[in-house]
Amino acid sequence: MVKICCIGAGYVGGPTMAVIALKCPSIEVAVVDISVSRIAAWNSDQLPIYEPGLDDVVKQCRGRNLFFSTDVEKHVCEADIVFVSVNTPTKTRGLGAGKAADLTYWESAARMIADVSKSDKIVVEKSTVPVKTAEAIEKILTHNGKGIKFQILSNPEFLAEGTAIEDLFKPDRVLIGGRETPEGQKAIQALKDVYAHWVPEDRILTTNLWSAELSKLAANAFLAQRISSVNAMSALCEATGANVKQVSFAVGTDSRIGPKFLNASVGFGGSCFQKDILNLVYICECNGLPEVAEYWKQVIKINDYQKGRFVNRVVASMFNTVANKKIAILGFAFKKDTGDTRETPAIDVMNKFDWDHPIHLQPMSPSTVKQVSVVWDAYAATKDAHGLCILTEWDEFRNLDYQKIFDNMQKPAFVFDGRNIVDVDKLREIGFIVYSIGKPLDPWLKDMPAVA
Ligand SMILES: NC(=O)C1=CN([C@@H]2O[C@H](COP(=O)(O)OP(=O)(O)OC[C@H]3O[C@@H](n4cnc5c(N)ncnc54)[C@H](O)[C@@H]3O)[C@@H](O)[C@H]2O)C=CC1
Ligand SMILES: O=C(O)[C@H]1O[C@H](OP(=O)(O)OP(=O)(O)OC[C@H]2O[C@@H](n3ccc(=O)[nH]c3=O)[C@H](O)[C@@H]2O)[C@H](O)[C@@H](O)[C@@H]1O
């Protein structure tokens, strides 16, 4: 029986391995992590991440051929294929701080694999890593490996949170990069055989190592670039009276451009887009390509601009200050159908509100006045509020009773839709002053000295 071990039981390791276990009953899959609480949660009825369809998949195979464990070394030692799906955040200190990927988790995983292995293994990069990481990993493994043979493969993951199970069941493609040697090709075939249990052959792409590593960074950069492009257009729409929904529909019907990923928003969030682009920027700089680095940096600059623009609209509309006002934030996750709040635009928006709050009105200590409170219900959140900001596109926010909300808010009552999900005309009829990203401006906003 083929044995797979995955190091890192996070948003990627957990769902990907659960799907491999489901689709390949003949393979034993162990997901290991140093976090005791995370593993305990994977072994409980309350999984550590919220992902539609995940509970069902885990229930079907946990204890059968899917195991979650903190005994990292034992499972690595026994495995034929070791996936490494640890976090690769942006470095916060030292060389490349603020841009380069922090590979300390990866390096310690690689050293541990080298230490505990007693048989040949295929080591698979599942985490998103800088191009050429496989070379460094190879060096760590072969220098410590006591003659044991390791083949490194790059198999980046393209799932999106909220649709992870769907994406894993029917991926657009699976990408496997490996060495162009006979041993490398054999390793590629072994991993292909795993995916071939459910992914059609023509969707399994094989490349050299560096192409696979770089394709992942490139894919995320292209996706984020589409969002920054449409968000840049949203600013121009507001200035000209065009409607960004109509513009993106018209643009997206061109089959060369396509309709997906053209929703204007308060900005993209999530743990990966920003970090992966920064990583790309750093790699370009290190390779003497400052113009290319500058090009990709703009994607992040526009994203920051968009978040700032949104807050400026809110503050300018509300008589140029939010001090002493109650603002209801509807949605905090970085997108719908996930509980993940890493790098969510809601954090930036709320921090900027805090910045607008004059010092003399700030509580002396965090316990004296509670500036932020969290409630379960949109009606409770909006009661007596001066304005509401929609920051995540949860379906429930489309169908709220906005008349009831309006009746319970302070007047004038404002709606700031950072996701373009409300019916602007209907809300204006109710009496709200509405700002919706990239849509023709409310007369109220036109008169404000808004700076965007
Ligand atoms: N979150 C997402 O939707 C996607 C993430 N990725 C990439 O996948 C990688 C993992 O991302 P997430 O799953 O979101 O991260 P995560 O933070 O949810 O999970 C990583 C896990 O690795 C564990 N870990 C770290 N070092 C370890 C070690 N030495 N031994 C054992 N466990 C260790 C941590 O305790 C943590 O539970 C990142 O490189 C990310 O860029 C790629 C595609 C999608
Ligand atoms: O490497 C990763 O981590 C993953 O990053 C993204 O997936 P994810 O961040 O989970 O979610 P997305 O659906 O891409 O959304 C990212 C952000 O962009 C925003 N977005 C998305 C689409 C759009 O049209 N407009 C827009 O503002 C979302 O609200 C969210 O804040 C990619 O879509 C995945 O392919 C990739 O595997």
From TrEMBL:
Q: Where is the UDP-glucose/GDP-mannose dehydrogenase C-terminal domain?
A: 328-424
Q: What class of enzyme is it?
A: oxidoreductase
**Which parts form a coiled-coil structure per UniProt?**
none
| Keyword annotations from UniProtKB, A to Z | NAD, Oxidoreductase
Q: What is its EC number?
A: 1.1.1.22
Read off the InterPro entries from this record. 6-PGluconate_DH-like_C_sf (IPR008927), NAD(P)-bd_dom_sf (IPR036291), UDP-Glc/GDP-Man (IPR017476), UDP-Glc/GDP-Man_DH_C (IPR014027), UDP-Glc/GDP-Man_DH_C_sf (IPR036220), UDP-Glc/GDP-Man_DH_dimer (IPR014026), UDP-Glc/GDP-Man_DH_N (IPR001732), UDPglc_DH_euk (IPR028356)
The pathway entry for this protein reads as:
Nucleotide-sugar biosynthesis; UDP-alpha-D-glucuronate biosynthesis; UDP-alpha-D-glucuronate from UDP-alpha-D-glucose: step 1/1
Which GO MF terms are attached to this record? Answer: NAD binding; UDP-glucose 6-dehydrogenase activity
Q: Which reaction does it catalyse?
A: UDP-alpha-D-glucose + 2 NAD(+) + H2O = UDP-alpha-D-glucuronate + 2 NADH + 3 H(+)
One family name in Pfam for this protein: UDPG_MGDP_dh_N
Question: Does the record bear NAD in its keywords?
Answer: yes
UniProt record, GO biological process? glycosaminoglycan biosynthetic process; UDP-glucuronate biosynthetic process
Taxonomically, which superkingdom?
Eukaryota
Please give the GO cellular component terms listed in this UniProt entry. Answer: nucleus
- Binding locations of NAD(+): 8-13, 33, 38, 86-90, 127-128, 161, 272-275, 342
**Active-site residue numbers:** 272 (nucleophile)
Is Ribosomal protein tagged as a keyword?
no
Stated family: Belongs to the UDP-glucose/GDP-mannose dehydrogenase family.
**By what name is this protein known?**
UDP-glucose 6-dehydrogenase
